[in-house]
Amino acid sequence: MSTRIADLDAGGAPLLGEPLPVELANTRYAVRGVPHEGLAEPEHLAAWLRDIAPRLSAPPSDAALLAVDARDLAAALDLRECVAALLHAAMTDTAPAADTVARLNTYTRAAPHWRELTWPTATTHTRAEPIAAVLAELADATIDLVTGPDRAELRPCHGPGCVLHFVKNNPRREWCSAGCGNRARVARHYQRTKNPPRM
């Protein structure tokens, strides 16, 4: 692994400014319909955590990120499977499997945290290992997302070949990104010009 946190290979997983659970689910993505794994290596997880660190209540240190290993990656991938299943359940208004809920709850319990006032702000603390603490925060954010008001706004992207999700924060939004919207418009235009209406 690289010795500088800035040099870590991000693995290509997109960051679209979505809630963190959606960002985690979106680390499995597609390019032109071909599936890609954005967290294939521990280095990719470390880089992804580095990139979302400003959004975390207790971001891991550079040393903790450089120490991310295969065990941390396995835990993150397991949590991602839970998150993806819960997002799907929320979007389809179905009950998730009981073991999925139990696994997610294991992550939230792994890192109890508390806040302390450090005038004029507050600081979040935990006794958990740094990566376990981040995974617990992501699990907790998943609970908030699938039980809160944004649940009704969760959507799968309908862009050609896209497998990402997003929170519909605008009534006109239909895709995860402008790029998917452009591809969808181009595909519709192509279909119209390829098969013009008969007179």
List the topology elements:
Layout: H1 20-25, E1 28-31, E2 34-37, H2 42-52, H3 62-66, H4 70-92, H5 98-109, E3 113-118, E4 121-126, H6 130-147, E5 154-156, E6 165-167, H7 178-194
Antiparallel strand pairs: 1-2, 3-4, 5-6
Describe this structure in words.
- By secondary structure, the chain is of the alpha+beta class.
- The chain has one domain (9-150).
- It has helices at residues 20-25, 42-52, 62-66, 70-92, 98-109, 130-147, 178-194, and strands spanning 28-31, 34-37, 113-118, 121-126, 154-156, 165-167.
- Helix 4 (70-92) packs across helix 5 and helix 4 packs parallel to helix 6.
Could you name the key traits of this structure?
199 residues; two-stranded antiparallel ribbon; globular; single chain
What's a quick, concise take on this entry?
With 199 residues, this protein is an alpha+beta fold. The protein has helices at residues 20-25, 42-52, 62-66, 70-92, 98-109, 130-147, 178-194, and strands at 28-31, 34-37, 113-118, 121-126, 154-156, 165-167.
